[in-house]
From TrEMBL:
One of its GO terms (molecular function) is glycosyltransferase activity. InterPro entries: Glyco_transf_92, Nucleotide-diphossugar_trans. It is found in: Membrane. PANTHER family: GLYCOSYLTRANSFERASE FAMILY 92 PROTEIN (PTHR21461). Belongs to the glycosyltransferase 92 family. The chain crosses the membrane at residues 43-61. It is an enzyme of class 2 (transferase). This is Glycosyltransferase family 92 protein. Its main location: membrane. Its EC number is 2.4.1.-. It is a single-pass membrane protein. GO terms for cellular component: cytoplasm; membrane.
């Protein structure tokens, strides 16, 4: 490629034979013009080179570059899988050493923001965390190390997890070496230590669920985009790490991030690593997605409980201030159990859940740490809740189901939601309700009485919908579009009229609350707010750019219809008079 540089300036004369002659054959003036031209060209050249170099370095060191590359990178051939992706379980130095330190067998995943999630292997018999006074360290090649901060005990598998910062020296490595977790700074690396490749958060098997008839794998990466599902015969499930003894079974469904596998035909008594394998086609070799998940036939998702008729589930991040209002309202109109998928909150969510439990509300918090996996989490909830719930309502904590027919009721009833659903004999497997999207309603901070009291002005047009689904009617693939599920062929899907039931979605709140959305989006197929992509998507806010900068007149936006119905109703049901007005039951 040939690069041409030109400079054009209205203040600089153009050098032509005529202009040179007009200078009176003054050689020094000609030399001045010629030198000025070269100086402009040289300056422009160095500016372009500097910008190119800066762009290259920024792209090279950006974590987003690595994450995006995972979708397009070719995975290692299956024959080398266990060298590439498995921590050195065959090394002997995971035992207690004479200096008091020991290596802990674990798997790891590179997380957004250059963090590494380290998950202790179920094969680790000596459970490490959290021992008071004991230090945990992530070790890297060439003597680099970082503190391993205890994160959480993962649900279902009961595995301890840690977070380590990736040292800067390795942020330009492709691939990145997997760290070794040890219980002391005095741990000594063996010269024979191998450093397998570190899997990326967006290309990994991250969860496995055992059912009575099969295994559900949750996998990021192979089905890369919405609607781009590869056929199930393109994959196999692999139980075990040794290529000559591993058991392979058929994949019966491949939709979004959910893959269903046939059970192995032999008895497996202990947890084994489970992988997803892409079957060889044509000249391509068989390839394997790295995994941090284990198959455990004896593991149950839930403790035995009385089966509830109506449950609700949602995925949350830092919504403690909203949860009491959402739970207390929906419990009063018929929801019997709430399953809260916590996507790594660091607010007072635990305290709020404990408080609700102490008030006899049945609220279960499920730690769900995986980023951008809302669809997979909702599919997980369909399996998780199947043994304890008949119907499951999928609703965000800023969404409230409401029927205009309830206006005349002086008190809420636990039969209200049930009245919106078909009979047990009906073949309707899902009922959806259209959404009304409310604007900031001139609020500048979170309303003291809650969202139902503070946000009263909405857009006129109905926006999208949310659903209550009969879990036994959900199709085998567990397909969900967040707003609804795919159903088995024999079941029907019904959309309710807005006069029968509607969802009040308090979406565009006071700016101080709304701008928190820029921090993350939980859906796997919706781009983050800060990414300059899909500006006209319905998942974006009209008139809002790609930075958390308050638009002019935000407090008055999205206000086309004043709608006081739910405010008046909830005040009648849950409000009580105080000296300076009234107070809602959920206020603390």
């Amino acid at each position: 490629m040939t690069l041409s540089f030109k400079t054009c300036s209205s203040s600089s004369p153009r050098l032509t034979p005529k202009s040179i002659a007009g200078a009176g054959d003054d050689a020094s003036q000609f030399f001045h013009h010629k030198t000025s031209y070269r100086a402009h060209t040289t300056t422009l050249f160095f500016i372009l080179v500097s910008l190119s170099l800066f762009g290259f370095i920024s792209l090279y060191y950006s974590p987003n570059t690595i994450y995006r590359a995972a979708f397009f990178a070719t995975t290692r051939p299956a024959k080398s899988r266990f060298v590439s992706y498995v921590i050195n379980t065959q090394d002997s130095n995971h035992h207690q050493l004479s200096n008091g330190s020991r290596r802990i067998r674990a798997e790891a995943v590179l997380w957004p923001g250059w963090e590494i999630l380290v998950i202790v292997s179920p094969e680790e018999k000596a459970k490490p965390p959290p021992f008071p006074g004991e230090n945990y360290i992530c070790f890297y090649p060439n003597g680099e190390k970082s503190t391993a901060r205890f994160a959480a005990i993962l649900p279902f598998s009961n595995r301890a997890s840690f977070r380590c910062s990736l040292p800067g020296i390795y942020r330009h490595h492709h691939p990145i070496p997997t760290p070794i977790l040890a219980s002391s700074k005095r741990f000594q690396l063996s010269p024979e230590t191998r450093w397998p490749d570190l899997p990326l958060w967006n290309f990994v098997v991250f969860e496995a669920i055992s059912t009575e008839t099969d295994v559900v794998l949750l996998v990021k990466g192979p089905n890369r985009g919405l609607g781009s599902n590869k056929p199930p015969e393109s994959f196999r499930c692999v139980f075990g790490e040794e290529s000559d003894t591993a058991i392979r079974t058929a994949v019966t469904s491949s939709v979004q991030e959910v893959f269903r596998c046939s059970l192995p035909n032999i008895t497996i008594d202990t947890p084994v690593k489970i992988y997803l394998e892409a079957v060889a086609t044509g000249k391509e070799e068989t390839k394997t997605v790295p995994s941090v998940a284990y198959y455990s036939p004896k593991r149950t998702l839930v403790e035995p409980r009385e089966k509830s008729l109506l449950c609700a589930t949602t995925m949350v991040y830092n919504v403690a201030k909203y949860l009491r209002e959402w739970v207390m309202y929906h419990a009063a109109i018929g929801i019997q159990r709430f399953i809260i998928y916590d996507n790594g909150s660091d607010d007072e969510l635990n305290d709020v859940v404990k408080g609700l439990n102490s008030e006899k509300y049945d609220v279960i918090k499920v730690l769900w740490i995986w980023p951008k996996t809302q669809e997979a989490g909702f599919s997980h909830a369909a399996v998780y809740g199947n043994d304890t719930c008949t119907w499951m309502m999928y609703l965000d904590v800023d969404e409230f189901l409401f029927s205009p027919a309830w206006d005349k009721q002086s008190q809420p009833s636990d039969q209200m939601i049930r009245s919106l659903l078909p009979s047990d004999q009906s073949m309707i497997g899902q009922v959806s309700f259209k959404s009304h999207e409310f604007g900031p309603s001139n609020q500048t901070k979170h309303p003291r009485g809650g969202v139902t009291q503070g946000y009263t002005c909405r857009r006129e047009e109905d926006q999208r919908h949310k659903s209550i689904v009969r879990l036994s009617a959900v199709e085998h693939s567990l397909y969900t579009a967040i707003h609804h599920f795919g159903l088995k062929r024999e079941y029907e899907w019904r959309v309710a009229d807005t006069e029968e039931g509607v969802v009040n979605h308090y979406k565009y709140q006071a700016w101080q609350e709304f701008k928190a959305k820029f921090k993350r989006r939980v859906s796997a197929y919706v781009v983050d707010w800060t990414r300059v992509s899909n500006p006209k998507s319905r998942d974006r806010t009209p008139g809002l750019g790609f930075r958390p900068v308050e638009p002019e007149g935000w407090a008055h936006k999205f206000c086309e219809v004043e709608d006081l119905r739910l405010k008046i109703l909830t005040r009648k049901w849950f409000g009580y008079p105080v000296k300076n007005g009234y107070r809602m039951a959920w206020q603390r």
